[in-house]
Amino acid sequence: MKIGVLASQGAFREHIEKLRQLGVEAMPVRMPEELKGLDGLIIPGGESTSIGRLMRDYKLTQAIRNMVKKGMPVFGTCAGMILLARESTDASFESLGLMDITVRRNAFGRQRESFETELNVPVLGKKPFPGVFIRAPLIEQVDGNVEVLARLADGTIVAAREDKMLALAFHPELTDDLRFHQYFLRLLSEKE
Ligand code: GLN
C-alpha cells in the first residue's frame, strides 16, 4: 500500500511520519507524475490559498480530481478540507470541489485562533480524540451522502466523510493519536 501526501506547502511531513509509524509506505507528492500508483492521498493543513494556487500551477488540480473520481481515497485536514469542499465561503482559488460540503475559512475568529478540545467521534470508539484547531475552518453544511463524524459541543460540524473522502477541520497529525490515520487506511481496503 502506498499513500501520497500532497507536499506543495503546509504540514505534510507530520502526515508522512504518522503513516510510516503505521507501517505504510508514504511519499511526498509535488508533481502529477508522482500520483501514479498511489492507493490514497492526504491533503494537509497549511494555507489553502497557497496550496490551491500551487496545485493549479503544477497541474495537480485536475489530475487529483480525476483520480478521486475514479475511486482513489482522499483525506483532507484543515486547509486540505477547504480544498476538498464543493463550496467555500471566501475562497479566491479553485478548489477540488469533490465533497458535498460547504466550509467557512478561519471560522473561529481571533479569540479562538488556536485551541484544543476533546472530540467525541463515535466511529473511533469511546475514547475522545484530541482536536487541535489552528485557524480552522468549520463545515457549515453537508449535503447528499455526507456523514457527519464529529461536532464541537455547540453542534458545529468539524469532521465528515463521503464515500472514500474524509475531511477534518483539525490536525490529527499534530497529536499522538493515530486513530484517524488508521480510519483512513480502513477506507482504502473497503469494498466499493
Ligand atoms: N486558515 C487556513 C486556510 O484558510 C487553514 C489553516 C490550517 O490549515 N491550519 O487555509
In short:
This protein has 192 residues and is α/β, with parallel strands linked by helices. The chain has helices at residues 12-21, 48-57, 61-69, 79-84, 179-189, and strands spanning 2-6, 25-29, 40-43, 74-77, 85-88, 99-104, 114-119, 129-134, 138-142, 147-151, 157-162, 165-168. It is built from five helices and twelve strands.
The oligomeric status of these chains comes to single chain
Please give the domain count: 1
- Biggest pleated-sheet summary: 7 strands, mixed
Query: Approximately how much beta-strand content do the residues carry?
Result: 25-35%
Q: Could you give me the name of the CATH homologous superfamily?
A: Class I glutamine amidotransferase (GATase) domain
Radius of gyration: 15 Å
The unreliable regions are none
